[in-house]
Design goal:
Length: about 675
């Protein structure tokens, strides 16, 4: 890892670590030299102490010899009163104790001398032990000469040898001290030199580290200051070029990330503002159309209301006319019924006339003239019955027409009234003909009374008359049947007219409800107009806010706009509105009206998009989803035109999901999020 990639903590740690290492080096050098010097000083002190010990031991043995010589000077002393064991005297304890081992370990150069000291020291004590043994055996007087000779030949040379060796030890210690002093001086000089060198190196390294750290930190900090100054001026496209991995590099990276995020967010805000502006324009257009449509609907509702009121008055007049027609038809029915009863009575009288003519056969010859009169009357009756037949036929036809007009009474009630008047006139004619028939029948009856006396004489004529009467009775029966059919048809016409009256009443009631509904529609149309006006005002306010937001975003320098995201979104959102309207049955969309995904404005931009957008991973996904959205619009329109509403609604739901994903991909590409990743 290079220095520029280290964090500030690591850089400071490395710098102070180097200085600390140098200080530690100085300290260690001082400690090492001091330790060595202290060890040398300890050896000097130890040598001085050992030298004093050797002198004291030498003095002790001189005292030992002086005390031993008392036996030769003082007759009262019978033996040498000294320590005879060479391990128990001071020198012996030292020679054979642990101190000697420490001494030899500390000063190896005197180990051989100390080794040589053991034998003379032992000889000295052994000679004294021999003298005391001799004195003890022979007494002082007898052995004085011999003990003195042993003392002089053994003890004194041994003592001299011990002194010589102790002096050698002292000399060796002096030489050792001198060498140690030389080493101390050399070590001190070397330590001073090393300390100076290390301090000089520490100063140089410290200055170099400080310069490097200051240059690295201040250079990066100045660059960050310059970058942040440009950011505060609104240029969000500027980026710090610091690529180190230290704390300042991480800070620069964070500033770049922050600037990138601000750039992306403001780009998305610009896109959202563009989208909101486009939506507000559409909303303003829609609200204007709704306001105009609501005004038209209110005017049309008023016109419909007036027409419904006029229709209500017409329906009342039609109902009154129909009621009058119903009364007239009822009267016709009553007249027809009465005519039927009369014709039945005529038939009954004809049957009686047949009986009478049969009885008058015996007088046929006498009643020839009367029979002739009866024949004339019968002829006239025949004419009258023909007239009745014609009237019955015409009445039947009029009754049929009345039935047809009754079915159409709702649209042409006046025509039915004309037919009803004709039926009334025919009924009057039928009544007059019936009265004439009655008169003629009375004439026939009168002639029959006149011919009763001679009926037997004119049998043949009576038979013919009987035949004529029978024929007349059959005709009258037919007229009776026709009269009954007329009565039935008139009754049906009366029922039909009553049904027409009921329908007219129901229609009038419905028309009254229509008038109320039209009034309600007019009220709601006025409310829609008021709401449309409010929506238009809100759309204008939102458009103003979107423009203000655009002006605010324009204060920043951000990435260029690749395409009009608001127009792209509104163009595809418009298909949702059209599909909803088509599925609701408000409009029809033809399949050839739907553009191909290459033909819309975004598709044309996509097919010729710059390279930097084509390399974004979301670009391919966006193209596929854009194609799917156009395909789903086409499929939904085809299903709607086939009246497959449920599947069209399902397809529209799928289209809405894909549309939202498409808009999310468009936002990603527009803001450059995918390219940044």
């Amino acid at each position: 890892m290079s220095l520029r990639d280290m964090s500030l903590t690591k850089k400071m740690t490395v710098g102070f670590g180097i200085l600390l290492a140098l200080l530690v080096g100085i300290g260690m050098t001082c400690i090492t030299s001091s330790t060595r010097n202290m060890a040398n000083l300890d050896q000097v002190i130890f040598a001085d102490e050992l030298k004093n010990t050797m002198l004291n031991l030498e003095i002790d043995h001189l005292k030992f010899m002086a005390k031993a010589q008392k036996v030769f000077l003082d007759p009262s002393v019978t033996k040498m009163e000294v320590i005879t064991d060479d391990h128990q005297c001071g020198l012996g304890k030292w020679l054979y104790g642990s101190i000697r081992q420490e001494t030899e370990h500390a000063i190896p150069r005197i180990a051989s001398t100390l080794q040589n000291l053991e034998q003379p020291h032992a000889d000295l004590h052994n000679s004294i032990k021999e003298i005391n043994a001799l004195l003890a055996r022979h007494g002082r007087e007898e052995s004085l000469v011999q003990t003195e000779a042993i003392f002089l030949s053994k003890s004194v040379p041994a003592l001299e040898k011990v002194q010589e060796l102790i002096s050698g030890v002292i000399v060796a210690l002096d030489a050792h001290e001198k060498q140690i002093n030389v080493d101390l001086h050399t070590s001190a000089t070397s330590m001073r030199f090393r300390i100076k060198v290390i301090c000089f190196i520490a100063v140089l390294v410290g200055v170099a580290v400080a310069v490097l750290l200051v240059r690295d930190i201040t250079g990066s900090v100045n660059q960050i200051i310059e970058t942040t100054a440009q950011l505060t001026e609104g240029d969000l496209t500027v980026r710090s070029q610091i690529s180190s991995k230290d704390d300042i590099g991480m800070l620069a990276k964070s500033i770049n990330t922050l600037a990138e995020q601000f750039d992306v967010n403001l780009t998305r805000v610009r896109g959202s503002s563009s989208t909101i502006g486009a939506y507000c324009s559409i909303l303003d257009d829609f609200s204007g159309k709704m306001l105009h449509s609501a005004a038209d609907m209110s005017g049309n509702a008023k016109m419909v209301s007036k027409a419904a009121e006029e229709m209500n008055r017409n329906m009342a007049a039609i109902a009154a006319a129909s009621e009058e027609t119903s009364v007239n038809v009822s009267q016709v029915a009553a007249g027809a019924e009465e005519m039927s009863v009369t014709i039945s009575e005529i038939a009954h009288k004809s049957e009686e006339a047949i009986k009478i003519t049969e009885e008058s056969v015996r007088e046929a010859t006498v009643a020839e003239e009367s029979v002739r009169g009866l024949g004339v009357a019968a002829d006239m009756i025949s004419k009258v019955t023909e007239t009745i037949t014609e009237i019955a036929d015409q009445t039947n036809l009029l009754a049929l027409n009345a039935t047809i007009e009754a079915a159409r009474a709702g649209d042409a009630g006046k025509g039915f009234a004309v037919v009803a008047n004709e039926i009334k006139d025919l009924a009057k004619q039928t009544t007059e003909a019936t009265q004439e028939i009655k008169q003629r029948i009375e004439g026939v009856q009168h002639s029959s009374d006149q011919t009763i006396a001679v009926i037997n004489k004119i049998a043949a004529t009576i038979q013919e008359t009987s035949l004529l009467v029978t024929t007349m009775a059959a005709a009258i029966q037919e007229q009776a049947a026709a009269s009954g059919e007329i009565s039935e048809n008139v009754n049906q016409a009366s029922l039909g007219i009553q049904e027409v009256n009921d329908n007219i009443a129901q229609a009038s009631k419905v028309n009254n409800q229509v008038v109320l509904d039209i009034v309600k529609v007019n009220t709601e149309a006025n409310q829609v107009a008021a709401n449309s006006s409010d929506i238009r005002e809100l759309a204008a306010e939102m458009l103003s806010n979107a423009s203000a937001l655009d002006e605010l975003v324009a204060q920043f320098v951000i990435r260029n706009e690749p395409f009009q995201v608001g127009d792209v979104k509104t163009a595809h959102f418009d298909w949702k509105l059209k599909l909803s309207s088509a599925i609701a049955g408000y409009q029809r969309i033809e399949e050839n009206e739907i553009p191909d995904h290459h033909q819309c404005s975004f598709g044309k931009w996509y097919d010729n998009a710059p390279r930097e957008f084509c390399n974004a991973p979301v670009f391919k996904v966006l193209g596929d989803r854009h194609e799917v959205v156009h395909k789903m619009v086409r499929e939904a329109v085809v299903l709607q035109n086939q009246n497959n509403i449920s599947k069209a609604e399902q397809k529209m739901g799928e289209f809405e999901k894909e549309r939202k994903k498409l808009f999310a991909n468009i936002d990603t590409l527009y803001a450059g999020l995918d390219a940044k990743k």
